[in-house]
Amino acid sequence: MSKREVLALLVVFIVYVVIGGAVFMAVEGPREEELRSEIARIRQDFHGTSTHRGAFYTFVFMG
């Protein structure tokens, strides 16, 4: 394989990865924002009742 072919394949690969990342962000972005706001709400609710970090993780991840 010549250097030109390797370079062309590298460029195609980089473009493929960038386009794939953009599509992934477009598809998953709204759900990620929902989850971020839900986690922020849970943190605010929890900080009103406790200041212990271990209890926070138990509260969030164990239900």
Number of helices: 2
Morphology: elongated
Number of domains: 1
Largest sheet: none
Helix content class: over 70%
Number of beta-strand segments = 0
Distance between the termini: 56 Å
SSE-based structural type: mainly alpha
Mean of the pLDDT scores?
Answer: 87
Poorly predicted runs of 5 or more residues = none
Task: Output the helix-strand order.
Answer: HH
Keywords: Membrane, Transmembrane, Transmembrane helix
Transmembrane segments: 6-27
Structure, described:
This protein is mainly α and about 60 residues long. It has one domain (about 5-60). It contains 2 helices and no strands. It has helices at about 5-45, 55-60. The termini are far apart. The model has no long low-confidence stretch (mean pLDDT about 85).
Structural topology:
Elements: H1 3-47, H2 53-62
Key terms:
0% strand; mainly alpha
The gist of it:
Keywords: Membrane, Transmembrane, Transmembrane helix. This protein is an all-alpha fold.
